[in-house]
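Module 6 notes. Inverse folding takes a fixed backbone as the condition and produces residue identities as the prediction. Think of it as a translation problem where the source language is geometry and the target language is the twenty amino acids. Below is one complete input and output pair. Work through it position by position during the lab.
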């Protein structure tokens, strides 16, 4: 966030692109090669705080697992629900295919929103 403060226009877009590429490189060892990451987002609250995460279900699939989990908001009295697709590769490694936000109020029928 500090990198993009005080700059505008093309310089700001370039700084955000560089940060997004760094984010993708950070995740690369843990995600499937075809998985697309989103642009980075800045905020004051880390959504994936392990102390607020609760596993709901783990479902076996033919390729791996679907893990449903919820994360309690730090300042609100409700949880957000997510589903993570985890696959086992041919060489036995586990990779994350996608994390989906499960929208309780979907628009146009989109109940799952990519959030990796």
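Target side of the pair, the amino acids:
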């Amino acid at each position: 966030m500090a990198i993009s403060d005080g700059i505008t226009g093309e310089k700001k877009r370039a700084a955000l692109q560089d940060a997004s590429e760094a984010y993708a490189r950070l995740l690369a060892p843990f995600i499937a090669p075809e998985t697309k990451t989103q642009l980075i987002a800045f905020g004051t609250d880390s959504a994936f705080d392990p102390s607020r995460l609760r596993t709901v279900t783990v479902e076996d699939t033919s390729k791996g697992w679907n893990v449903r989990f919820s994360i309690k908001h730090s300042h609100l009295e409700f949880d957000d629900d997510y589903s993570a697709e985890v696959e086992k590769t041919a060489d036995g490694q586990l990779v994350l295919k996608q994390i989906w936000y499960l929208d309780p109020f979907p628009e146009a029928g989109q109940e799952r929103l990519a959030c990796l």
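Reference fact for the lab report: The longest strand covers residues 79-88.
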